[in-house]
Automatic annotation (TrEMBL), chain A:
Organism for this UniProt entry: Kitasatospora cystarginea
Function noted in UniProt: NDH-1 shuttles electrons from NADH, via FMN and iron-sulfur (Fe-S) centers, to quinones in the respiratory chain. The immediate electron acceptor for the enzyme in this species is believed to be a menaquinone. Couples the redox reaction to proton translocation (for every two electrons transferred, four hydrogen ions are translocated across the cytoplasmic membrane), and thus conserves the redox energy in a proton gradient.
Protein name, entry field: NADH-quinone oxidoreductase subunit K
Record gene name: nuoK_1
Its membrane topology: Multi-pass membrane protein
Chief place of localization: membrane
Compartmental location: Cell membrane; Membrane
Transmembrane domains' residue ranges: 61-85
NCBIfam families to which the protein is assigned, alphabetical: PRK05715.1-2, PRK05715.1-5
Family, as annotated: Belongs to the complex I subunit 4L family.
Enzyme Commission number, as recorded: 7.1.1.-
Catalysed reaction, written as an equation: a quinone + NADH + 5 H(+)(in) = a quinol + NAD(+) + 4 H(+)(out)
TrEMBL record, chain B:
Domain of life: Bacteria
Localisation per UniProt entry: Endomembrane system; Membrane
Classification of source organism: Bacteria, Bacillati, Actinomycetota, Actinomycetes, Kitasatosporales
Species, as recorded: Kitasatospora cystarginea
Keyword Cell membrane: no
Protein name: NADH-quinone oxidoreductase subunit L
Length: 122, 671
């Protein structure tokens, strides 16, 4: 089998994953998209391993590692999403902005007061 | 000779000053002995040094202070007749002033710092007199300047005293900067800062730019000795306490410039142009200041202008090449002018005013202060220059020197050829000196008559119209009014007067015999020549008579006016002023020092202020705009970056992906 088939398939999978990470709102779907991206990488690893006829089969070994780590990661991620949903009542990524610049309106006001030359202070 | 003695002379008052400053606040009882004893001890030591040195001798000793790479600076002592005599004068006047101040500033809370500054000043003057090195001399010179600044501003509560001290400081500094350059140039030309080395270089013709050096030094001398373009600080300096005026602004500090020129006269003799400039400076100074003195109403300002004029005499003698006459006049003037200021302090204490026209309405003033009355009379006669008082001999020595210079046979006493002195300078000094003798006699007589000889017509209980008169605009704040003690003439204020009256009366004869005073100096004759003596005395007598006549006619007119208009005493007081009659239309300008201050204010002060305002504008509006702009720019950038941090993880990842794609494209295109 020519190498191009699995590679194109992996690229498509990865693109779907990227799209899902960037565009989906639900955190669980974002996690699933991350899994898609990981599996695209796995597919690449296996395809190249077969293509290069690596005697040690490092690609396959690495794939097994990635599957294990991905399983652990998805377990932790789902637990976090579950806890966030319990706390906030939502799992939408774009509503979970607590780590952003907190007081947007006050910050803007302060920034606008500081930008013009305040002669009164001088 | 033991070098410790002359070294102790400047050191003792300096140590006394330090001790007074250290203990003044905690133990004010020690302030008086600490003020008087070191200065008096220095005076005695100066006498001992002078006696040990003897006449005609000189002593030079030096230890090198530090290797400089250039001409070495050495801690040098130079003793000769000039320095001995002037150190005696300084010691005598400083001791009298310290004793007098104990009574004069009895209730002043700042007496310790005052006494310390006077002691420090005395030390600096001794240093200037004894120093054999120009740089060390400059140190003493500048210490005197700063002491003068502090002492003029002693009554710093009043705006007048503050501005007068600033003015004195700035104006003298204006002269000191060219002076510093002159010293540096002199040192580099001569290869040494030692005065003896400089004089050797001058004698050997090794000075490259004598005219430039002499003119630069003259600027400093004009500042310190209050000569014409830079004289304006001295009349205003009278805002300080009267003993300070006596010590600093009459007897000693202002004489430092004259002393310096006398020490370096061989350098000045190399440059006819500098001597001519000096003679013109002296002539303008003496005539102008005498006219101003004739118009002043403030007793101390009359004396201040008279000091300026007498310093003009000394400068004139130097311009004629005769430093013996200059130093002779310096010493006799130092004695009688210090006496005049000290008596003025007593009189002002008693009269509670500085204004002589206000004093003229106090008929019993001369009975209340008999000692001051008589000693001031003695000092005024010496100032006028009537024989046999000291002022006569010293002034005639100056005029004789000018006469010799005018006829081309200047008395240089071997310091240089007689032809080195321009005859034109001699004529200028001679003519202006003779005219000043007339004016001096007039203003001294006016001062004496107006201050002490009250008009019979003025009622003793007249309600002080003189307050308006005496404190006319331009008259300085007179702190003495607030300082008046209960006793009119305490002993500490009385006996210094008589101590100083002795040299005022008798010192002049020292110049008659060549083996008396001249043997201490360069050995030239100080005997007045017949022609100038007759002319000078006749002019002085004429001045006295004219002033007296003007005063009599003014008094008579005032009496007539008082009979017709009994309430017109203010007008009567003004009309009886002989200065107004004598000067006529010149009276107004002369009263304000010929508006030199206003001219300087228009020429220098206002442009400087305008430049300062321009700089302020540039600082505020231009430079600060840049500073604010950097702050504002950083804020703006920060604001932009904050906008990016919106908490949406997907936006972050999008930006990350965009960056990765960008990098990948760049790498792909780049390779």
């Amino acid at each position: 089998m020519h190498l191009v088939y699995p590679v194109v398939l992996a690229a498509l999978l990865f693109s779907v994953g990227v799209y899902g990470v960037l565009a989906r709102r639900n955190a669980i779907l974002v996690l699933m998209s991350v899994e898609l991206m990981l599996n695209a990488v796995n597919l690449n690893l296996v395809a190249f391993d077969a293509w290069l006829r690596d005697s040690l089969h490092a690609g396959q070994a690495l794939t097994l590692f990635i599957i294990t780590v991905a399983a652990a990661e998805i377990g932790l991620g789902l637990a976090i999403v579950l806890l966030v949903f319990r706390n906030r009542g939502t799992a939408d990524i774009d509503r979970l902005t607590a780590l952003g610049d907190p007081n947007e309106d006050a910050a803007e006001a302060a920034a606008e007061a500081a930008v013009p030359n305040d002669r009164a202070a001088a | 000779m033991n070098l410790a003695l002359p070294a102790l002379v400047p050191a003792l008052p300096a140590l006394g000053a330090a001790a007074t400053l250290a203990t003044g606040r905690r133990a004010p009882g020690f302030a008086r002995p600490l003020a008087i004893l070191p200065v008096a001890a220095s005076a005695v030591l100066a006498l001992v040094v002078a006696l040990q040195l003897g006449g005609g001798q000189s002593l030079d000793a030096a230890t090198r202070l530090t290797p400089t790479g250039g001409p070495a600076i050495s801690l040098a002592i130079h003793l000769d007749g000039f320095s001995s005599l002037i150190s005696l004068l300084v010691g005598l006047v400083a001791t009298c002033v310290q004793v007098y101040s104990t009574a004069y500033l009895k209730d002043d809370p700042r007496y310790p710092s005052y006494a310390a500054l006077v002691s420090l000043f005395t030390a600096a003057m001794f240093l200037v007199v004894y120093s054999g090195d120009l740089v060390v001399l400059l140190v003493g010179w500048e210490i005197m300047g700063i002491c003068s600044y502090f002492l003029i501003g002693h009554h710093w509560e009043s705006a007048d005293a503050r501005s007068a001290s600033l003015k004195a400081f700035l104006v003298t500094k204006l002269g000191d900067i060219p002076f510093l350059f002159g010293i540096l140039l002199l040192g580099s030309d001569a290869g040494t800062f030692r005065i003896s080395g400089v004089l050797e270089a001058a004698a050997g013709g090794r000075l490259g730019h004598p005219t430039l050096i002499a003119l630069l030094l003259l600027a400093g001398v004009a500042g310190k000795s209050a000569q014409f373009p830079l004289h304006t600080w001295l009349p205003d300096a009278m805002a300080g306490p009267t003993p300070v005026s006596a010590l600093i602004h009459a007897a000693t500090m202002v004489a430092a410039g004259i002393y310096l020129v006398a020490r370096l006269l061989p350098v000045f003799l190399l440059s006819g142009a500098a001597l001519l400039v000096l003679s013109v400076m002296a002539a303008v100074t003496m005539v102008g200041s005498a006219l101003c003195a004739l118009a002043q109403d403030d007793l101390k300002r009359v004396l201040a202008y008279s000091t300026v004029g007498q310093l003009g005499y000394m400068a004139g003698a130097l311009a004629s090449g005769d430093r013996d006459a200059a130093v002779f006049h310096l010493i006799s003037h130092g004695a009688f002018k210090a006496l005049l200021f000290l008596t003025a302090g007593v009189v002002i204490h008693a009269a509670h005013t500085n204004s002589i026209s206000a004093m003229s309405r106090m008929p019993d003033l001369r009975r209340r202060v008999p000692d001051a009355y008589w000693t001031m009379g003695i000092a005024l006669v010496a100032l006028v220059g009537l024989p046999p008082f000291s002022g006569f001999f010293s002034k005639e020595a100056v005029l004789t020197a000018a006469e010799h210079a005018a006829t081309g046979e200047a008395i240089t006493n071997g310091l240089g050829p007689a032809s080195a002195v321009p005859a034109a300078g001699g004529w200028i000094v001679l003519v202006s000196g003779a005219f000043t003798a007339l004016l001096t006699a007039a203003y001294a007589t006016r001062l004496w008559l107006v201050a002490f000889h009250a008009q019979a017509t003025a009622a003793p209980a007249a309600p002080e119209p003189g307050q308006a008169n005496g404190h006319a605009e331009g008259a300085p704040y007179s702190p003495e009014i607030d300082e008046a003690g209960t006793q009119l003439e305490p002993h500490a204020m009385r006996w210094p007067l008589w101590v100083l009256a002795v040299p005022t009366m008798g010192f002049g004869v020292a110049g008659l015999r060549p083996d008396w005073l001249p043997s201490l100096l360069d050995g030239g004759s100080l005997r007045p020549s017949t022609g100038t003596a007759v002319i000078g005395t006749a002019l002085a007598l004429a001045g006295i008579l004219v002033a007296y006549a003007a005063w009599r006619s003014g008094t008579a007119r005032a009496a007539a006016a008082a009979r017709t208009v009994p309430a017109g005493q203010a007008a009567a007081g003004a009309a009886a002023d002989p200065g107004r009659t004598l000067l006529g239309p010149l009276f107004g300008p002369a009263q304000h020092g010929f508006h030199v201050d206003r001219l300087y204010s228009a020429l220098f002060v206002r442009p400087t202020t305008a430049a300062a305002q321009l700089v302020r504008f540039l600082d505020r509006e231009v430079i600060e705009t840049y500073v604010r702009g950097t702050g504002g720019g950083a804020n703006l950038l920060g604001w932009l970056v904050r906008r990016a941090q919106n908490g949406n993880a997907q936006a972050y990842v999008s930006a990350l992906l965009a960056g990765v794609v960008l990098l990948a494209v760049l790498v792909a295109v780049g390779t």
